[in-house]
Structures are given as C-alpha cells and as structure tokens.
Design goal:
Blueprint lengths: L6 E4 L3 H12 L4 E4 L3 H9 L3 E2 L3 H6 L3 E4 L4 H9 L4 H4 L5 E4 L5 H13 L5
Parallel strand pairs: 1-2, 1-4, 2-3, 4-5
Helix pairs in contact: 1-2
Length: about 120
C-alpha cells in the first residue's frame, strides 16, 4: 500500500464511487464521506475509512477531492463550518470536480490560500 499520500473523498454517488475506487485500488489510504453512508459501503468493504463530516475527511487527508450535486453543496462541504477546509492541515490540497460556479472555485482557492492550503 502506498502510504506517502493520504486521500480524502467527499461524495460517493455514481461518479464519485468509481473515481474513489480507482484511488483505493492504486493503494492510497482513502477516507470517505457522503450524505448516504450506504453509497460508500463498497469502498469501506475494500478498506476505506469512514468519516462523519468533510472536516473529518480532511483531518485524515493530504488531498481532498469532492464531487457533489450543486454549487451550494460544494460551498457546504468545502467552506461550511464543518467543511473540508476547516479540517485541512497547512499545505493540504482541495480539489472539487463538481460542475459548479467558477466564482465559487475562485473563492475556495482564495480561502484555501489564506489558510496555507491550495485549491
């Protein structure tokens, strides 16, 4: 198992489940969170760790990916009070793959940079 980079994944719907599965298959330690835990079960069965919040995902990750429904969801899972940025250590990376707002992506990048992270 590759333990040099810890990966977090928020959103294990149709797209996220498959994409996160490739990360796990490549041997990276994976922590996941989704609104519906049962959608993450195939990843958990293969060794992924469950987190109860996006912040908890980030606490166990160097890089956090998200792929959720709408821009409001992106804002909540990245910048909300229990969002990934609140749990990410300095030097961490956020990567959102949701079809979302360019202005929101710029805001996430700005807020991440202010905390010593990248997005």
């Amino acid at each position: 198992m590759n333990t040099s980079l810890r990966v977090g994944w928020i959103g294990t719907g149709v797209m996220g489940l498959s994409m996160a599965g490739h990360i796990l298959k490549a041997g990276f330690p994976l922590t996941v969170c989704s609104r519906t835990r049962s959608k993450s079960q195939p990843l958990l069965d293969k060794g992924a760790r469950w987190a109860d919040s996006p912040a908890e995902v980030a606490q166990h990750s160097d890089v956090v990916f998200s792929i959720v429904g709408y821009p409001a969801d992106v804002e909540a899972v990245m910048l909300g009070p229990d969002g990934a940025l609140s749990g990410l250590a300095r030097g961490g990376i956020l990567c959102d793959m949701t079809t979302s707002s360019p202005a929101l992506a710029a805001r996430i990048a700005h807020e991440a940079a202010a905390r010593g992270c990248a997005a």
